[in-house]
Every structure is written in C-alpha cells, then in structure tokens.
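Request: How about a record?
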Amino acid sequence: MKNYCQHCLQETENPSLELIFQWGAEGGGERIYRNKEGRIISIGSSGGMLDEEEDPIITWQYQFPTIKSFWECFDRMNKNWFRLYPLFIHKEYKAFVNKQIESIAQKQNINEEWKRLINK
C-alpha cells in the first residue's frame, strides 16, 4: 500500500514523514522530510551514471534538528545548489527557500525552476 503526504500528496515511504523539499540532478537527488517531532530527515543518492567502478551509487540519510541546520549543510555541501533542479517545495517552506534565493540572486544565475515552484 502506498502512503501519501496529506498536504502535498507526494508519495512517501513512511507515513510519519512529510515531504518538504526535493531536488534532482543528473545522476542523483535528495528528498527532505519532516517527521512528527519536527526533525528534518535528508535521504538521497548520487552516482550510477557510468559503470560501477567509475561512478558507484552512493546513498545517504541524515537528520537535522531544524530546516535552518539542514540548509546550512545543504549550502556547504552543494555550493552551486541554485543550479540544481528543484522538484518540490512544500508550501510551508516556500518563504524560507525564497529568502535563500534572494540572498544570492544578484550574484548568481539561478535556475528559473526555483522561482516557478515558489510562485506556484
């Protein structure tokens, strides 16, 4: 039986997790969830575009106490995150993500999909 977030109708593996953010890129991506306690859980993977020896598939799962602590890590690990392809931004987090975009918009060429999802 499939489980869906009550707010965004996105499919989730665990009914106690709510999808709040998802991005993709060639060969990888990440889903960010909020659990019932409000902690942020990041689940992602990358690799697999070439053969296993040259480009092994790497998966990860991390927990963060807040969206702010997640974003600090996300920004540090993905210096060009604004070029990634956002697939979903939960309505409760659009203002937060928009603030992150505005903080760099004058210095960087932002993927327009970020703005489209925020204004959707």
